[in-house]
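From the methods appendix. Each design record in this collection lists the tokenized structure first, followed by the designed amino acid sequence. Records were kept in a plain field format so they could be parsed without special tools. The example shown here is representative of the layout used throughout.

RECORD:
FOLD TOKENS (261 positions):
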């Protein structure tokens, strides 16, 4: 087992991961930390270039050798703000949906909700996370991450998929976990990563202030509310139950294009 101090860690360039990542260098000063979108991190972990990465929870379905660090996740129990469906049409009129390919969990959640909550069967197409032209090519677009806060602001109807998931299941949704490659024991990493989480949440006001300066158009206090009310980071019994329900549904979709590619 590699010493936690010298881990190769993959993080995400999104605000939602900052409470988990901001204090990792303090706890693990010799670790190598790189940031990339979750789908890219998944490829790096599979190639053995990383030891642990903050990945979309759904990668566990296709990778039985992967494990995850317990008690930690990126979770919403209702409105999440950073996973949005944008459309200028009514749900029953949507025939094509462009999916932001940077998050496998959000792609899968959107597919499940269209099929099982809205009883619709649109055609799904992918678009890279750097592209903002989704609505020019499809009737609706699903985006994740910080760009969701301001994308299509006022020009399209915005539906919060975290809130819809809660209405559908009455359970939280687990977007991401610290996933370990084979040969890395997640239980040995849990104390260090839990300490980084504790310190991050202890300094969440500073993190929120830093984020606020990058989005001056958003109202004061937006990120404090986002990080403390829209998101949670403790993976407990109820959150695990929500994740298991998601996995049970997601297994039926794993062969669909853009579902897990």
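DESIGN:
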């Amino acid at each position: 087992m590699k010493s936690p101090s010298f881990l190769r860690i993959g993080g995400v360039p999104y605000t939602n991961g900052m409470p988990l990542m901001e204090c990792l260098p303090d706890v693990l000063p010799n670790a190598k930390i790189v940031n990339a979108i979750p789908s890219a991190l998944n490829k790096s972990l599979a190639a053995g270039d990383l030891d642990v990465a903050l990945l979309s929870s759904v990668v566990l379905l296709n990778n039985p050798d992967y494990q995850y660090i317990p008690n930690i996740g990126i979770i919403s129990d209702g409105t999440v703000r950073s996973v949005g469906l944008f459309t200028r049409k009514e749900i029953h009129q949507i025939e094509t949906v462009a999916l932001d390919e940077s998050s496998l969990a959000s792609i899968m959640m959107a597919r499940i909700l269209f099929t099982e909550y809205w009883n619709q069967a649109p055609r799904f197409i992918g678009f890279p996370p750097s592209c903002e032209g989704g609505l020019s090519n499809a009737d609706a677009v699903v985006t994740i991450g910080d760009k969701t806060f301001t994308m299509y602001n006022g020009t399209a109807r915005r539906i919060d998929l975290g809130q819809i998931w809660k209405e559908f299941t009455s359970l939280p949704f687990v977007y991401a976990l610290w996933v370990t490659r084979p040969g890395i024991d997640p239980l040995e990493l849990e104390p260090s990563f839990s300490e980084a989480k504790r310190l991050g949440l202890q300094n969440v006001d500073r993190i929120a202030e830093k984020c606020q300066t990058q989005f001056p158009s958003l109202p004061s206090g937006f990120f404090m509310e986002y990080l403390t009310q829209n998101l949670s980071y403790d993976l407990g019994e109820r959150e695990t139950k929500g994740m298991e329900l998601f996995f049970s549904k997601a297994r039926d979709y794993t062969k669909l294009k853009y579902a897990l590619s």
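APPENDIX NOTE: The chain has a mean pLDDT of 90.
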